[in-house]
Amino acid sequence: MAEQATARTVPVAEEVGRMYDRMTVLAAGLTGGDGFNAHLGYWDTPDSPLTYDEAMDRLTDVMTDRLRIGAGSRLLDVGCGVGAPAVRIARRTGAGVTGISVSREQVERADVLAREAALTGRVVFQQADAMRQPYADATFDAAFALESMPHMPDRAQALREVRRVLKPGGRLVLTDFFRRPAHRDDDPSLRAAMGSTLAELDGYPALLRSVGLEFVEMTDISEETVPRSFALLAERARGLDLADDDIEARCYFDPQALMDPALLGYLLVVARRPLAE
Length: 277
What we know:
Layout: H1 13-31, H2 52-67, E1 74-78, H3 84-93, E2 96-101, H4 104-116, E3 123-127, E4 140-146, H5 155-165, E5 166-179, H6 188-194, H7 204-210, E6 214-220, H8 222-237, H9 247-253, E7 264-272
Parallel strand pairs: 1-2, 1-4, 2-3, 4-5
Antiparallel strand pairs: 5-7, 6-7
Helix pairs in contact: 2-3, 6-9
């Protein structure tokens, strides 16, 4: 149920991997760190005092609460980035986490983060394509996909793979971008720069059911996430030396420079592999 995409706009795993390799190296150089935990934050109220970093952790926690996992559980993190959410979830729940990314640079830096957190062996990362996962059926107790679905060439195929590797009763919690009702035409800068597509809001429950997942919850959290995240990213970007013509970097570090945040929606979705099949 993703937007209709052409050969030019469909995300390609290898290209997305190369893009995130470059962005991860660039982030480390610009910020002076080992990586860049880049996803939206979540503020429960408009006057919430959380910083951007705290709000990113808050979004991870909001998603984690819906996973219903604990010590001894096995979680799959689909599109793990540089590993910050996986490490936080492991510390908070006691679960073991396996993170996958198509970016070699992200996996290498995520491995370092797990070692520094003394979680080696309980939090592991692997370069892998979510469309063709290297895991046996019914391996994981739950799955987590934070802003990775827009990069999938085919959301349905990615979700089928998640369903396959989930144990019966296992939950999937994800976030995805969608067209807001005020959307005029879909913004080409997001597709071209980030290898992304936008989801169809009304079609998401049917999409989940079409791949054999039970629909549990769908919540529009656009107002709690997008405007403030974009504004704070823009604030941070002013301190970085970004080339004006580097569209990829602009989209990664300062998306507000390329698109109107009022036109972008953000969705929290919970699904489950049926217990009885």
